């Protein structure tokens, strides 16, 4: 019996791999960047909202200096966990296509040198998350070099006029950090407030900064056009022109819909979430499973805390699938016959 290929080496993909390994099922993880690549792209000084115990996988304890670990502590934990468990992973292997063959799948990828490589699999698990596909504000000028869809640090923007678009944790956290690093910050949000649904640790700071006008806030507003020296907004009071050097559009991310569609996986057009069995995580494309954040589309309802729990369920489903097909010794630990 062949291997399972997991696409995505984030926490949820690693959870799937660890769970399959516990059952003696061969598994290979393909990751387009480094281990937990999306976390490496988080702001440099970020502290995760989740507590360390809610990030654990594979039965390996995660001890952090404080209850809520830093980005660097999280990266170190998953890096060491991968080595400790001996998870087979090919980093810097970007999956380009998955093709169904007579008995399974051919997974095609490009390695770090751009060379085409392929792997055979009996089952495929898509754990690609959403972080690589930023949602666009779809305004003229969004393609300008000054527009960014990811935020890492504020130091470089000291003295710059920076506009942040969004009203969730990432946008609020970026606006606060930019202000503290000496940027002239404007925050734009379609909703009437940014004080709902954000981390409690951000609430007091952003409220004070807006009330004291340290950060200009335009609620119920959106971007009409981005130019080199300014951004035109539609606000409650009409159109406003804001002088500007850089724009951070932090309005969320979405799954790689193209890959899902090529596998004939049904997609909910409103939420962009794939169709799958809520118990086994198998999609309506037999033999293809989804895990982690990708399962929720653009709804922001699945995070590492709960996405990591998909791994054991998927491993159990694959083991049962193989057992039913007579490919695993009955009564055993899941070792392939």
Automatic annotation (TrEMBL):
UniProt keyword list: Flavoprotein, Oxidoreductase
Top-level taxon of the source organism: Bacteria
Cofactor: FAD
Gene3D superfamilies: FAD/NAD(P)-binding domain (3.50.50.60)
InterPro entries named among the record's database cross-references: Bdr, FAD/NAD-bd_sf, Ferredoxin-NADP_redctase_2
UniProt entry tagged with the keyword Flavoprotein: yes
Cross-referenced NCBIfam families: Bthiol_YpdA
Protein name stated in the entry: YpdA family putative bacillithiol disulfide reductase
């Amino acid at each position: 019996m062949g291997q399972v290929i997991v696409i995505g080496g984030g926490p949820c993909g690693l959870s799937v791999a660890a769970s399959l390994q516990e059952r003696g099922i061969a598994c290979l993880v393909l990751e387009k960047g480094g281990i937990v690549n999306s976390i490496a792209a988080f702001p440099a000084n970020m502290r995760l909202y989740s507590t360390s115990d809610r990030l654990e996988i594979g039965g390996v304890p995660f001890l952090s200096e404080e209850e809520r670990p830093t980005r660097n502590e999280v990266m170190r934990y998953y890096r060491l966990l991968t080595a400790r468990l001996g998870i087979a992973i090919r980093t810097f292997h970007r999956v380009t296509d998955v093709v169904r063959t007579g008995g399974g799948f051919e997974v095609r990828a490009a390695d770090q040198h751009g060379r085409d490589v392929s792997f055979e699999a009996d089952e495929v698990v898509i754990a690609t998350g959403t972080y690589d596909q930023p949602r666009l504000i779809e305004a003229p000028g969004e393609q300008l070099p000054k527009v960014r869809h990811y935020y890492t640090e504020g130091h470089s923007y000291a003295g710059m006029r920076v506009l942040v678009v969004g009203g969730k944790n990432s946008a609020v956290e970026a606006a606060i950090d930019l202000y503290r690093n000496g940027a002239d910050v404007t925050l734009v949000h379609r909703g009437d407030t940014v004080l709902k649904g954000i981390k409690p640790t951000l609430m007091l700071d952003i409220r004070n900064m807006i009330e004291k006008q340290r950060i200009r806030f335009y609620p119920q507003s959106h971007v009409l056009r981005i130019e080199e020296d300014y951004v035109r907004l539609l606000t409650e009071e009409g159109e406003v022109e804001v002088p500007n050097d850089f724009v951070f559009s932090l309005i969320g991310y979405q799954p790689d819909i193209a890959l899902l569609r090529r596998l004939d996986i049904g997609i909910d057009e409103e939420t962009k979430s794939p169709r799958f069995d809520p118990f086994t995580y198998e999609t309506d494309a037999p033999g293809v499973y989804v895990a982690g954040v990708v399962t929720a589309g653009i709804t922001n309802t699945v995070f590492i805390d709960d996405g990591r729990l998909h791994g054991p369920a998927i491993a159990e489903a694959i083991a049962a699938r193989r057992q039913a097909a007579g490919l695993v010794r009955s009564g055993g630990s899941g070792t392939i016959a």
